[in-house]
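Hi V.,

You were right to ask for the full record rather than a summary. Here it is.
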Amino acid sequence: MRGGTVSNPRVPVWLKPRGMTCVVVGGGPVAARRAGRLAEAGAEVVMLSPTLCPEAAELVQRGFVAWRERPYRPGDLAHAALAVAATDDPAVNAAVREEARSRGIWCNRADDASDSDLDFASVTCFGDVSISIATGGKRPDLAKRLRQALEDDLATGGDAFIRLLRQCAASAASAGDDACPEP
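Predicted structure:
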């Protein structure tokens, strides 16, 4: 808190979804990335979608996620601990969010970060150290660029990432949020 106000209404936490049932509604690249991250962390992931993109199909083929070849239906979150609404239809995503809310289930809505209980941050790990970079869903491209710069820098033991952060801060202060030089 700064000056008695909350400057960032999010709380960074590391979810350990091992054994949790996580329902991912959607079969596109965003759904695949989020399903993959949850499965990698040990979640029992169920994807609901009539079709799958190649990345999602690979997750199913390799046994990382279960696939229900159909659209979302009310009641699909009955046994879920976490939900991801990642379709290209805002009405479906809103319906998933509403069911999650009514059941007390955390939900990530890929098309509307302001209507989500959690964000999927860009993450990098070096041994026991994990670092996440989040933009509240507003600038995933910037989070990815910063993560990549951090990975490259830490791999070489340099301090280029700190210089990049300083340049971003200076550029944002003078030219707006979108001003950040390429790493």
